Amino acid sequence: MRKLLIYSILSISLLACKKNDEKVAGTEAKDSLTDNSLSLDTSNSDGKLISLKELSPEKITEVLKSNHSDTLYVTNFFATWCGPCMQEIPHFRKKMDELKNQPVKFTFVSLDNKTDWDTKVIDFADEYEINQNVILLDGMLLKQEFFTQNFQSWNGEAIPFTLIRKGDKSDETVGSMTEEMLNQKINKLLADNSSAKAIDNKEKTMISSQKKSLK
Q1: Does the pLDDT value for residue 176 go beyond 80?
Q2: SS3 sequence, 189-208?
Q3: Which residues are CB-neighbours of 170 under 8 A, at least 6 positions away?
Q4: Which residues are 39's β-sheet partners?
Q5: 143, 129, 155: which is closest to 77 by C-alpha?
Q6: Are 158 and 175 in contact (CB under 8 A)?
Q7: For 6, how many CA atoms within 13 A lie in the half-sphere containing its CB?
Q8: Which of 42, 84, 163, 215 is geometrically suited to a Cys-Cys bond with 26, CB 3.0 to 4.6 A?
Q9: Local confidence band at 68 (pLDDT 50, 70, 90 cut-offs)
């Protein structure tokens, strides 16, 4: 696993950003007070226009806290320079295709250097056809509180990291996963939810029957 150091001085070596007065090519700020995101619109190496969104740590937290009871959320933190990250991405892509008609949301949070956003990350998103699922995160903005507030086992020291959750249940994995591991974790949460829903429906049916018998 590659190390991801979260403190400002040490993080420069892994998540070095351009100076504040430099602009990322093709990046324009949105004029929305409720959405402090940036849209990166640029072309990949083949000249195809790709659009990615940058979110602040605060907005990432909102994404992580999203909770529709019928939706399974799979959030993967990665970087294109991270070998183990790239090894497991095809497993995620395959699972996305398998579950495309189900309420499952895959999100890939890129921790690449900002200088690589409109080159390596753009090409990566286009290669796997997941530009709608990729979020850009400036690692220089991360503080320790981001990790303690959002995760139980991840302190930001290593990637890849994957959070899988549904309802009040979640699974955290620090390090890369095999296809079998990913399938087991996702299927378990889906199965747990199906069982809980079946029990809930059974209880509702029993209550309804009892009400009818009292009439």
Answers
A1: yes
A2: HHHHHHHHHHHHHHHHHHHH
A3: 163, 164
A4: 28, 53
A5: 155
A6: yes
A7: 14
A8: 42
A9: confident
**Residues whose CB is less than 8 angstroms from the CB of residue 190 and which lie 6 or more positions away in sequence, other chains included:** 72, 102, 166
Structure tokens at 212: 């009818």
96 pLDDT above the threshold of 80: yes
- Taking the C-alpha atoms of residue 71 and residue 106, their distance in angstroms, rounded to an integer, is 10
User: Rounded to 5 degrees, what are φ and ψ at 141?
Assistant: -90, -10
Q: How do residues 134-145 score in pLDDT, each as one tens digit?
A: 999 999 999 999
Is 0.70 topped by the overall pTM? Answer: yes
Strand pairing report for 72-78 and 104-110: parallel
Please name the residues in contact with 105: beta carbons below 8 A apart, sequence gap of 6 or more: 66, 71, 72, 73, 74
Secondary structure letter of residue 85 according to DSSP: H
186-206 in b/e burial notation, b at 16+ Cβ within 10 A? beebbeebeeeeeeeeeeeee
- Tokens matching residue 205: 């049916």
| pLDDT greater than 70 at residue 184 | yes
* Backbone phi, psi, residue 92, to 5°: -65, -40
Q: DSSP for 93-134?
A: HHHHHHTTTSSEEEEEEE---GGGIIIIIHHHHHHTT-TTTE
